[in-house]
Amino acid sequence: MITLTIRTGLIAALLGTFCLGFIAPATAAPKGEKVVFLTKFVSEETTLNVLPGGHTYGWNYLTSATKIDGKPGKVEFLGVVNYTDGSGPFGGFVTVTLDNGSILGLAVDGQGLSLAKGGGTADARFGGSITVISGSGDFKKAQGIGTMTGSRASTLGSPVAMKFNVILKK
Question: What is the pTM of this model?
Answer without folding.
Answer: 0.78
